[in-house]
Design a protein that fits this description.
The complex is a heterodimer of chains A (279) and B (209). Chain A is of the alpha/beta class and 279 residues long. Chain A folds into two domains: 55 residues; 198 residues, Rossmann fold (3-Layer(aba) Sandwich). In chain A, strands 3-2-1-4-5-6 form a six-stranded parallel beta sheet, with helices on both faces. In chain A, β4, α8 and β5 form a beta-alpha-beta unit. In chain A, α1 runs antiparallel to α11 and α4 packs parallel to α10. The longest helix of chain A has 36 residues. Chain B contains nine helices and no strands. In chain B, α1 crosses α2, α1 packs across α8 and α7 packs parallel to α8. Chain B is extended, with a radius of gyration of 26 Å. The chains are: A alpha/beta (279), B mainly alpha (209). Chains A and B meet through α2, α5, α6, α9 and α10 of A and α2, α4, α5, α6 and α7 of B.
Chain lengths: 279, 209
């Protein structure tokens, strides 16, 4: 067998073949609709238990700050979270610190709220978007009405039953930030010092590990990280949602990634060996 | 007093006020803080406008400089910008509106597609470049493989207990390095803020002069 030629052909494999392999490794498991079984990590369990510990009528401040590119990771997370919250009759005051998150969040809440028969104004309110996350977080801690005099639907916050008596952070029983960028970090930096309750974060996979140090120091009391975290959360809430389906496809793609790394390195080492053998 | 020095004094006063209110638990201090924060939000709105203006200028230059098919891209930008501005200003932006439809059926899939392309490029880069060339490269490669296998449901079936190693990487070396990073970012932030307040650091126009 012509080993040098074989090694050269493996090393020089066309990029389109690799693209096709990756596409198939994601599409086939998604089409097969297989659901994964995951083992929840301690950070995800902590997030879930903090919500479970809340009582009927408690209010959560939900900040959703992400762009459509991260929706596939974060939307299943939000849906599972809202299902847990509304099933326990907990109320939600939501806002977005990212202009593009506004459109994504309101429809997510509306769909789940309708499923659980929750009414706008009584059980949930959407404050809308304001720029400058540090300023918004600090202002919210003491004067939410001056920062958000009315919601995007044109209702004055003082007219809505849920927000009439809202005075600041002390009215919230937990703060939940679901984000793909720096705003979750702003909740820790500017929110932690002003808020005595638990701050919980749901993050895209890329920034999840960066928050591990905040979990260790108890700045955040729970983390859902990436699609894997969302799948763990769905399992804890007891739903078979998008994340449990997608994480199976992601697993297969990860295996293909590892396979590609192994094959790439074997061909690299073989090329080195052949080079030395041939002098 | 020239314009630069007036700016320096304004920054010094506002900066000191923003710092001092943390140490003076008085209603006046709180009022000043709220006043400055309201201004910060307003300024960020203007920054958004400045961003849009800069983007439009950049695309206009590109439209003027490019020829043939390449002009499609700035053209598409202006069409998209006009559609989103007009639909957002004229009609409602609630679910089911034209603005929402454009967001949901154009912007959202386009951004998701752009983001998902990363997976393909990363796979190819992993195959071509992730090589056992040196000791640091080997450590990086092993960490990547452990994280890829250890943070997914199928990984445990292929390599039992791999998640223990993945969790160790996240909870020990990762925490140590990110904590150092956060502390460094914090200290650098304080240093930069002090330089701005004292007047050493400023707009690019100061440096040019």
């Amino acid at each position: 067998m012509d080993y040098p030629a074989l090694v050269a052909s493996i090393s020089g494999i066309d990029r389109r073949v690799i693209y096709l392999v990756i596409a198939l490794s994601i599409m086939v498991p998604l089409l097969l609709a297989s659901y994964a079984r995951v083992e929840p990590e301690i950070e995800t369990v902590s997030f879930y238990e903090r919500i479970q510990d809340l009582s009927e009528g408690d209010i959560i401040l939900l900040s959703v700050d992400y762009m459509p590119g991260s929706a596939s990771e974060l939307e299943p997370m939000i849906t599972a979270f809202l299902k847990q919250v509304f099933s326990k009759h907990i109320k939600i005051v939501a806002l977005s610190l990212n202009a593009q998150g506004t459109g994504l969040l309101e429809s997510s809440i509306e769909n789940v709220a309708a499923e659980y028969g929750k009414n706008y104004g009584d059980d949930w309110v959407f404050l809308g978007y304001r720029p400058s996350s540090p300023a918004v977080i600090i202002s919210l801690s003491g004067s939410p009405h001056s920062l958000f005099p009315e919601d995007p639907r044109g209702n004055e916050l003082s007219d809505l039953p849920l927000t009439t008596d809202l005075n600041g952070f002390e009215d919230f029983n937990a703060i939940v930030a679901i984000a793909s960028g720096a705003s979750a970090q702003d909740w820790v930096i500017y929110g932690y010092e002003r808020y005595t309750g638990p701050i919980l974060v749901g993050l895209s996979g890329g920034i999840g590990p960066a928050f591990q140090s905040f979990y260790d120091t108890h700045h955040v009391k729970g983390i859902i990280a990436g699609l894997q975290g969302a799948a763990e959360y769905e399992q804890l809430v007891g739903i078979r949602g998008e994340a449990l389906r997608a994480v199976f496809a992601q697993s297969v793609a990860h295996l293909v990634f590892v396979g590609l790394i192994v094959v790439g390195n074997l061909s690299f080492l073989a090329a080195l060996w052949i080079e030395r053998a041939m002098g | 007093m020239n314009r630069d020095n007036r700016l320096r004094i304004m920054v010094l006063i506002l900066g000191l006020l923003a710092i001092l209110q943390f140490f003076i638990p008085h209603n006046t201090g709180r009022w000043i803080n709220r006043f400055l924060l309201d201004w910060l939000v307003i300024l960020e709105f203007f920054a958004l406008i400045a961003g849009i203006v800069a983007l439009v200028r950049g695309q206009l230059i590109s439209l003027r400089k490019t020829q043939g098919n390449a002009r499609i891209y700035p053209g598409l930008f202006f069409v998209g910008l006009a559609i989103m501005i007009v639909t957002g200003l004229v009609g409602p932006i609630a679910e089911g509106s034209l603005f929402d439809t454009c967001f949901r059926w154009f912007l959202q899939p386009l951004q998701s597609t752009l983001f998902s392309l990363l997976a393909f490029y990363m796979a190819y880069a992993a195959f071509r470049s992730f090589r056992l060339k040196s000791a640091p490269a080997t450590i990086l490669l092993l960490s990547a493989v452990i994280m890829l296998m250890g943070r997914m449901p199928l990984g445990e079936r292929v390599i039992p207990n791999i998640s223990l190693f993945a969790n160790w990487i996240v909870r020990v070396p990762n925490v140590g390095s990110t904590r150092g990073l956060w502390i460094g970012i914090g200290l650098a932030g304080i240093a930069t803020a002090m330089r701005v307040i004292i007047g050493i650091e400023g707009p690019a126009s100061w440096r040019r002069r």
